[in-house]
């Protein structure tokens, strides 16, 4: 089943003709020129849109450079890790149980302070 969409809302060509019906070609041309000149003048009168800008304080710039430096720095000493691996492989790595217990206790206390427990 085909639907003729031209007849639903009227023929668009007829609407254009009806809006200019009864006017002379000179009047139609004058209306077009007036519309064009109004749009051109409104475009020229429109103020330039301001550009967004951001400026950082010296302190913010320093913090940014420190953050980049820390991000690029290793989080652990690779030399120390290599020495510990070597000592473990050779059987020379000794663990001090009392020192380990003290460190675990200090860690748990610090962790408790962070969680509010």
TrEMBL record:
List the transmembrane segments: none
Name the domain of life. Bacteria
Q: Which stretches of sequence are listed as region Disordered?
A: 1-74
InterPro entries xref list? Anti-sigma-28_factor_FlgM_sf, FlgM, FlgM_C
- GO term, biological process aspect, one: negative regulation of DNA-templated transcription
Keywords, sorted A to Z: Bacterial flagellum biogenesis, Cell projection, Cilium, Flagellum, Repressor, Transcription, Transcription regulation
Ranges for domain Anti-sigma-28 factor FlgM C-terminal: 52-104
Q: Which residue windows does the record flag with biased composition (Polar residues)? A: 12-22, 52-65
Question: Residue spans with biased composition (Low complexity)?
Answer: 26-49
Described function: Responsible for the coupling of flagellin expression to flagellar assembly by preventing expression of the flagellin genes when a component of the middle class of proteins is defective. It negatively regulates flagellar genes by inhibiting the activity of FliA by directly binding to FliA.
Q: Which family does it belong to?
A: Belongs to the FlgM family.
Which protein, by its recorded name, is this? Negative regulator of flagellin synthesis
Species of origin reads: Neiella litorisoli
Which gene name does the record give? flgM
């Amino acid at each position: 089943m085909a639907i003729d969409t031209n007849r639903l809302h009227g023929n668009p060509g007829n609407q254009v003709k009806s809006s200019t019906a009864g006017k002379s070609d000179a009047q139609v041309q004058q209306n077009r020129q007036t519309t064009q000149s109004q749009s051109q003048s409104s475009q020229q009168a429109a103020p330039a849109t301001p550009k967004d800008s951001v400026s950082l304080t010296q302190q913010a710039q320093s913090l940014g450079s420190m953050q980049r430096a820390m991000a690029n720095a290793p989080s652990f000493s690779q030399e120390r890790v290599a020495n510990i691996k070597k000592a473990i492989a050779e059987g020379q790595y000794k663990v001090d149980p009392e020192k380990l217990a003290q460190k675990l206790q200090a860690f748990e206390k610090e962790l408790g302070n962070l969680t509010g427990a």
